[in-house]
Amino acid sequence: MNQSLRNSSDWFAGFLKDTPSFLKHTLYDKWLVTGLYVVSIFSALAVSALLIWATDGSWRSVFSAMLDGSLSNPGRWGATIGESTPLLLVALGTIISVRAGLINIGQEGQLLIGAAVTTFIAVRIDHPGPLILTLALLGGLLAGALWAWIAAGLKYWRRVPEVLTTLLLVTVAAQLVGYSLKTTTLLLDRSPDHANRNQVSDKIPANIRIPRLTIFGNEFPLSALVAMALAVVLAIWLVRTATGFRLRMLGMNQKVAHRVGVSAVKYGMAAMAVSGGLAGLAGAMMITGGDFGSYTFTAGFSSFIGWEGLLVALVARNHPLAAIPMAFIFGSLRTGSGFLAATGVEREISNVVQALIVLALLLPPAVLYARERRKLLATVKART
Amino acid sequence: MNWDFFEAIGDVASQSSVYEGGLRFAIVLAFVAAGEWIAEKAGTLNISVEGMLLGGAFAAAAGLHITGSVIMGILLGTASGLIIAWVQANMSHRLTADQFVVGLTLNILVLGVASFLNSSIRLDTTRAHVFEIPWLVDFPLVGRALFGQRWPFYLIYLVVPLCWLLLYRTRWGLEVRAAGENPHAADVSGIHVNRRRRQSIYVAGLTSGMGGAVLLLGQVGRFEDTIVNGQGFIAIAAVIFGGWTLRGAMFGCLLFGAVNSFRLTLPPLGYKINSELLSSMPYLVTILTVAIIATYARPPAALARPFIRDLE
Predict the structure, then answer these.
(1) pLDDT at A26 over 80
(2) What is the CATH classification number for the domain harbouring B218?
(3) CB-based contact A186:A195 (threshold 8 Å)
(4) Res A3 pLDDT > 50
């Protein structure tokens, strides 16, 4: 198996073979596919506009405020990139678990645990420097992996569906983090001169922060580049290596994987741990990157990044490279919603827009599949 | 923590308010679990019940706010559950989108829409009035819990038996169970598998929407976007806990309800326990009990597997 994989000479063919079905359709039915996508995205936006109109808002000002907040105004690109970085990381984690046929939907909790452990290491170890930063990021990654691994363990030892455990563990994680934020030995701010030090951690020291870059007046943390590099690595790993191939086999057909000798327990557990680890890393990079909570850890720190990263993976149809632009789009919806206060429309509308877009993007592939199937059925019938 | 665990249980168990609170929580779960049980028997692990519960609660609040009648609130809540079920069913069992993906997206969408509308419109709502069944209510300890609740709670005595009758005493129910156990055999014998699955999701939508309405009108009284907070998922856990029998699922709901009221009544009785541990107790107990039970129960054979007919 190894050998045959290495022998396939055409580099691009590997990607193409693995393109999600909706991209394959574009190869011969470009107009239909584009049309379907345009129509469904347009209707998602139209439904959101209708909702705004129904609550006496002006949809024009909402959409233009969102555009101002995410892209048009100077320096906003940087903020958007900063917001999309953890989204991308969470999405990459989701992609790994989905490709292995597992449904990890507890990223919000894994992210919180990762961020908490990172904060603990960064704040409580008195030896500042890049070494501690690496250690803190690694700690966040491992903590997220461990949290997801609980669900994987319960799945393979006790046959509990991982959909359920990952979800229930989100609430447990939130409570655990809440507890550690009330305890001085864990995370609670120690400095007595703070007026309101309820459920707030110490600030992360200046030299344990991820350096920030400035390009054309747009400032964003270095972690954005790391996340994008990880996306590329993941895309190559999934289609060009034997382990990636086995992982996909496990996700596509468990029986075949079993016959070939791919251990569902081994690969499943690893996939789950990596998936949670990436969510934990997202949390770690959020706290040390500076775009969230200005370097202090609070109870509501995750601010739905875990859930939205999940949506990014869905919209990218589990393709790591497609997740990069999708994360950017979702990040811009987040930064855009920050500018909504002036329009008098509640900022929750951005969540509605996001979910509607995801729902709308689920439709075209399904419709295309149904159409394909009908065609095939017709040819089968004609033959008999 | 220097307190005697069993003494605490004894203290709590002798309070009639515990049974009241526990049953209130359990009944909302039971509405959801009854419908979810039917959907799972047909082969769908329907995770959008969380959204149906929240949608039902919001629609009930809106219905009560607009019309001023509790009955309209319940009807509207039930209807909104059905609408969410319609989207879920048709996207996962008519088109071929993944059922978990659709369910998850619907949960997020409903949460977004409900919290958006809730912060744009102020809803004036109250709870339905208490209806006491004469002299049964005086039964010691559990009388008030079973027969002295707000009246929407009594709908559960209708819904659960109906769900059981539907699944075990009708032809439709037989076909639904066949679709969940062996869809290909069912298909060959002339059952429209995906149609039965869609219909079973509609049933789940109806009961979960009603559950949401009961949650709002009978328990909380004011809509907030945090009132559901994972109860739909706990109801799914109750179905698994019950080994895919209705009896077991109802027992699971009662157990999780008991745990919840346990955590609510311990602090007033003077027990000092870590509040975070208490809040996460229902979830931890759910995970632990399901982990113990899940290996012994046999799920419907085609649970969470989409049915696509072969070409020939």
Answers:
(1) no
(2) 1.10.3470
(3) no
(4) no
Q: Is B76 within the bounds of a domain?
A: yes
Mean pLDDT for A175-195 is: 77
Interface of B with A in 42-71 (CB under 8 A): 45, 47
pLDDT (0 to 100) of residue A29: 66
Our CA-based measurement puts residue B143 at a distance from the nearest CA of chain A, in whole angstroms, of: 33
The per-residue pLDDT for A6 is: 37
Which among B108, B230, B276 has CB closest to A168? B230
Q: Tens digits of per-residue pLDDT, B202-217?
A: 999 999 999 999 999 9
- Report the predicted TM-score, pTM, of the whole model to 2 decimal places: 0.87
Note whether A363 contacts B: Cβ–Cβ < 8 A.
Answer: yes
pLDDT value, residue A320: 93
Contact A331, A69 (CB under 8 A): no
Instruction: Name all domains of chain A by residue range, CATH numbers in brackets.
Output: 71-347 (1.10.3470)
Element at A214 (helix H, strand E): strand A212-215
Strand (E) or helix (H) holding A221: strand A218-221
Q: Is A318 left (phi over 0), alpha (psi -120 to 50) or beta?
A: left
Domain that holds residue B214: 5-293
Residue whose structure tokens are 């989409």: B306
- The angle formed by the CA atoms of residues B14, B16 and B17, to the nearest 5 degrees, is 120
Which band of pLDDT confidence, cut at 50, 70 and 90, is reported for residue B200? very high
**Residue A175 is nearest to which of B102, B280, B290, comparing CB atoms?**
B280
Contact between A164 and B290 using a beta-carbon 8 Å cutoff: yes
| C-alpha–C-alpha distance, residues A123 and A341, integer Å | 34
Give which of A51, A154, A166, A352 to mutate to test B binding, by max B Cβ within 10 Å: A352
Tokens at A52, concatenated? 């705004």
Residue B310 falls inside a structural domain: no
- A98 and A105 in contact (C-beta within 8 Å)? no
User: A352 to chain B: which residues are within 8 Å by CB?
Assistant: 109, 112-113, 116
Alpha helices, H only, chain A: 2-7, 11-17, 21-26, 30-54, 59-67, 76-99, 107-124, 130-158, 162-180, 223-240, 242-252, 254-260, 264-289, 305-315, 320-337, 349-383
* Location of structure tokens 């509040």: B275
Query: How far, in Å, are A159, A382, B29 from residue B243 at the CA level?
Result: 12, 46, 16
Question: What is the arithmetic mean of pLDDT over B261-289?
Answer: 81
What's the pLDDT score for residue B4? 67
Report the alpha-carbon distance of residue B215 to residue B108 in Å, rounded: 19
Contact (CB<8Å) B283/A169: yes
Instruction: Answer whether residue B301 is part of any domain.
Output: no
Minimum distance, in Å, between the CA of residue B117 and any CA atom of chain A: 8
Distance from CA of A40 to the nearest CA of B (A): 14
Report DSSP state, residue A298. B
Are the Cβ atoms of B237 and A164 closer than 8 angstroms? yes
Domain presence at residue B302: no
Amino acid at A45: L
The pLDDT score that the predictor gives to residue A347 is 79
Average pLDDT over residues A241-264: 90
Window B:108-137, CB contacts with A under 8 Å: 108-109, 111-113, 115-117, 119-121
CB contact under 8 A, A55 and B116: yes
| Contact status of A169 with chain B (Cβ, < 8 Å) | yes
Global ipTM: 0.84
Q: What is the predicted pLDDT for the residue at A209?
A: 87
Domain count, chain B: 1
Instruction: For residue range B84-106, list pLDDT tens digits in order.
Output: 999 999 999 988 888 888 998 99
